Amino acid sequence: MDGGHGFRTARTGSGRARTISGRARARFRTARTGPRTAPADSRTASAGFLAGPLGLLVAPVGCLLAAAPGLLIGRVQPILPLLAIGPLMAATFLGARRTFLVSCWTVLLALAAGLGAGTQPSAGFAVRWGGLLLGCACSVYAARQRGRLRERLAEAREVARITQEAILRPVSRTLSGTHVSTRYHCAGRESSVGGDLYDLAVTPYGLRVLVGDARGHGLDALRTASDTVTAFRELAYTTPDLTALARKLDVRLAPRLAPEDFVTAVLAEFGPGEVRLVNCGHPAPLRSGRRLELLEPRVPALPLGLHPEPHQYRVRLQPGDRLLLYTDGLTESRAPDGTPFALLTESATALGEPTPDAALHALYDRLLAHTGGPPTDDLALVLCQPTGVTAPVRV
Hints:
The chain is an alpha+beta fold. The chain is 47% helix and 17% strand.
């Protein structure tokens, strides 16, 4: 999430509440208007291409061009510092072994050019050659260190991926009379770490579902998402009221968040024939059934971390109704020409699939067809379909 979903400001009854909300809204809008991280696909592709055949070709050819005057014109002295550019280029794009090969090629070219120019041993000659050899050695060492750093970075990304999989457990099962299916898609190709989150809890008060979106990307967003899920798992089983649960989550998260950070979230609690919702600055859930509609809160609330004043609202569920909870990676996706994703139109067909799993798969396929490629923001989808009378589980 880069800025979160735009929400309407809740009307408060006192001037003090309006002042606090105004400051929080300013922080929220400031965060929303921050620059969106551009996809790194083009940069990654170009770097990978240079690290392959092109990188192995460019450095030796550059050395050959630098040594060409000494090779073709016998009396022209080779510019040894210029020849060191080849190994330095190789260290930037290639591994230590290939950089060593380029360095050997550079030394051979320098030797051939020097012999062709009739270079005589002297103090200046020794200094220049010493500088060239030192540059080659440093290039090989730099390439080796860069390789080690890349290995460590790959290990860190793998740890982050495993951690996120532990947080975002894939679900496709019936819990307390409601079938729940989940999907998570990360926009970043270099790392599968994002700030979107969801979690489920079968509590004495019914099945509770949390879907949220922590501001930002990377490890900071993952840390915030982990804190949110951990707090939900601790509080969902002991807090009878959904609004009180949202307030407790805010109290738990606020001290751990940076001044400009927040978490948009929606809480859902399934009961017999209805669902109870609390929305804290998150995109409105979508109900699919006899009619398709967004379940907007009557009184919008600020995200978690900004001290919201949440309100609960109830929605009746008819047999066959489905409730889609999602993050703003769905609503803020754009086609190449800038056209936004038509949530209601596309969902009307996709959510009509026979099974919840097939419905989520169809919805994501429609999103890819609209954007012409992977979405530029993280995306979490949770589809809930009551299968009968929801009976709270006593624990």
